[in-house]
Amino acid sequence: MSNYSKLPVDVQREIDEMILKFDENKDGKIEIGELSNIFKDFGIDATSEELSQAAKDLDTNNDGTIDISEVKEFFAGVRLAE
Questions:
Q1: What is the pLDDT of residue 64?
Q2: Where are the extended beta strands (E) located within 1-82?
């Protein structure tokens, strides 16, 4: 079972809406440069080093973008850890 599916539906919707806001071209990917804005939306004040590490961890295929499913799982993990 994924972390995302463990979240309450209202929290899943919150994550979905936040991600869609940042997927400007609606291609299902988040550019690594946009990751900072996503963190800020969740109230996470990440350093440049933390953002770089998160982008590296999330971009598992090293194509310079992060799939929305990867972002969902990441933020689900953050929410479950709260």
A1: 80
A2: 29-31, 65-67
